[in-house]
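Quick check before the chapter quiz. The format below is the same one you will see on the exam, so make sure you can read both the input and the output lines.
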Amino acid sequence: MKKHNSGVLNFFNIVLLAVAAIQYYLMTPLNTYNENFLKPGMDFDNKFKLIPGFIIFYMSVYVLLVMVILFIIKSKESSDLTIFLLASIFLWSLVNFLHGFFPTMNIIRPKVENPGFFFEAVNSLYTNVKPYNTIPNWHVATAILLSIAYFKNHFKRPAIIYVWAFLIILSPLFLKMTYIIDVVIAIPLPFLCYYLAEKISTVKLRTETVQEIVKTFSLESLVQSVAIGIRDESTLSSLIDNLTRIEKSMNEKDKTEVNKILSGFDPPLTSLKDVINKLIESISAEKQLSKAREMFGDGNKSYYPSDVEMKRATDDLISEACKPFDNAKFRYELLELKKKNTGKINTTSIEELAKDRSNDIIFRFKSFVESHKKDIAFINKISGASTGIGEISFEEIKIFSKELRKPPYEISPDEVWNAFGRIEPDRVKPLLDQNNPANVISLTQYVTGKIETLEPFSDIVDRKFKNWLIENETSGKKYSEEQMEWLNMMKNYVSTFLKIDMMSFNDPPFVNKGGAARAYNLFSTDLNKILSDLNERLIV
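Here is the expected output.
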């Protein structure tokens, strides 16, 4: 059974999709009469006349919802789908909560007696959707959420979507399905929910070893997941670890039983270790590259396959490696062996697996950098710069990191950093909690041979900043305590966004301390020179 978009529709995202569907379903039973209903209507509500044609936009919210989900799935970025589904769950749960605790009654629906298709459609809508619990309006909140998701994922032709979403927002008003106050309350909710979803999705364990030892899913769920086609790298890695522990605990009788089943496969396998090795090879970037060269480059080692070719080669390897799990007898035997297994973890084998995984991540990252030198501006600028990093924008860093997370590489900058730390500890400074997107600059410089020691980008900026301060002190320039506080904020801003100008003072943390006006009061005419110095000395 071949699985499509396994990296996007993984087990976790399928669960989130189910939870979101449940929250949507709950809106109907919550839409009931309550004696203590609120009366949020205003005189202005009566100025919106019924326009039946708006029912097209009202119902099209479901088309837009499906379209955005399909676009995210097509982009092959599982984290984007996770964020969107989390935001949807938060938003719809919040809408349900407010519907349950702040019941309302829609008394502005008119009696529709005119003939015609649209008038009949509105009458049908009034019949099927009860006039209760309108605050906040679901259509308005969902349309805005879809617009945010479309914007965040940089999909094409956003103007069309924004106009579409705006018409959906207006439709409940012109269909007399909601009050103005319902729309006003609904507007900020999707922004809050999407922000929370983005924050929560970035929370993860910092220690890879713990993740490798303590697995989220049992062997039973992993085997069943693979059998039904959920074959993303995380699932297969967990399965490999579980099977490795079982293989090491097997006695001769166990091995004989398993080998008897495996010998009947086409092609036959000789042992459980063969199954494990094939699974390991299927998620190995080196094997995937070799397979792609074999399939599309006639085995030429200098041939660099495209991402689409790598994806096809990876799917073939995974499909072949997972064939044993299509056999019910083999799955049953594994679960029986699991019951006899004491569950003790062989620490040595886990550490070996961790090192193998780290080497594979490093190989993936090096392959990514080598394969995209020409088409990703960020890599081109770093590899082409004789000194420094050249003119790099924060947007280019985001594009680099997003592409790195897509198949066939599917790794994060933090994973790459931790992998180098495990394999080359003497040359790598631990990342700790310095979650700075600009750290990919240090990583790319390291693999392209521009620097010999891998250290967080903010550490490099700190060192240059101290040298700049020393030069200023040597020339007789002294800064007050408050000026130093602002200079440090500027330095931190530059270390993340790679550039600072007067517009930057409209962003946190500057805006909270007086913004551009306060900065000019502190540094006067020296401010422009300071900004220029920081841009030139800390980054270029």
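If your answer matched, good. The chain has 26 helices and no strands.
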